[in-house]
Amino acid sequence: MRYFFFLLLFGLLFPGCSKQAEAGTPVYNNEVAAITMSAPLPPKEKVIQQKIIKSASLRFETNDLEDTYKQIQAAVKESHASIQSDSEGKNDVSLYRTIMIHVPSQNFDVFLQSVSKGVSYFDQKDISSEDVTEQYIDLDSRLKTKRKLEERYLEILKKANKISEILEIEEQISLIREEIEAKEGQLKYLESRVSESRISIQFYKPIAEKQSIKISYGSKILTAIKSGFNELSGVFIWIISIWPFIFLFCLLAYFIRKRFKRKNI
User: Fold this and answer.
1) Residues in CB range of 11: below 8 A, 6 or more apart
2) Which burial class, exposed, middle or buried, applies to 99 when counting CB atoms under 10 A from its CB (0-12, 13-18, 19+)?
3) Quick check: helix, strand or coil at residue 127?
């Protein structure tokens, strides 16, 4: 009873303590939450996009060279690519055509799929990718360093008074400018190789076996005739070049023969 009376008296005398205790926790949590939400996020590291050079080399057989070429032209147009070189040829066993194409890297896979339609077997299919991200970052970093160095030399040049100092600074700036231009060229080359993939395509049509044999034998016969004519011409020219000796030999043989006839008589 005394214990209950004591608790009742404590509640009447100090009514705010329990309420403050009950309300204290959520207020603190709200403040922490507010601070957390308003606190600035840590700076994100700069994400460097991968620099990858893609290339491919294809070689396959086709039944119709013209149809295959039209299919490649359609793929070139669809992928916004460009034909850099186009050559045709013939040997003893086939007619062939070789095309070098530059394709935007984002369309590389789509272009290969379009060109590969209808090809049952590839004699050669080489696809490669080279990661040059590290090389690109290194060049870019060196280029920035050289540009800052150039800016410092330009500031020093503004303050220089002596002609000797001006000439020396200008020489340094000229050397730095050459290095900057060289690295800019290397970066542009890497960017062009990354942005455009190179694809070499060779397709061929076999020549019929009988036709190939006829062409081969005909070619050999013609070669033999030309060779014989050249040899005969050579012998004739050689005979002409030694005609005095031949004449003397014939004359000597005539007199010897005539003398033997007299002895026999």
Assistant:
1) 18
2) buried
3) strand
pLDDT (tens digit per residue) in 116-144? 998 989 999 999 999 999 999 999 999 99
> 0.85 cut: is pTM over it?
no
| Torsion angles phi and psi, residue 203, rounded to 5 | -130, 145
Residue appearing with tokens 């005739």: 225
Q: Which residues does 111 contact at the CB level (< 8 Å), separation at least 6? A: 75, 76, 78, 79, 81, 101, 103, 199
- Which of helix, strand or coil describes residue 97? strand
* Consecutive H or E run containing 205: strand 196-206
User: How far is residue 99's CA from residue 108's CA, in Å, rounded to a whole number?
Assistant: 16
CA distance 125 to 182: 35
pLDDT tens-place string over residues 43-92: 444 556 889 999 999 999 999 999 999 999 999 999 999 999 999 999 98
Other residues' Cβ atoms within 10 Å of the Cβ of residue 174: 9
**How many residues in the chain?**
265
Answer whether 113's CB lies under 8 Å from 103's CB.
no
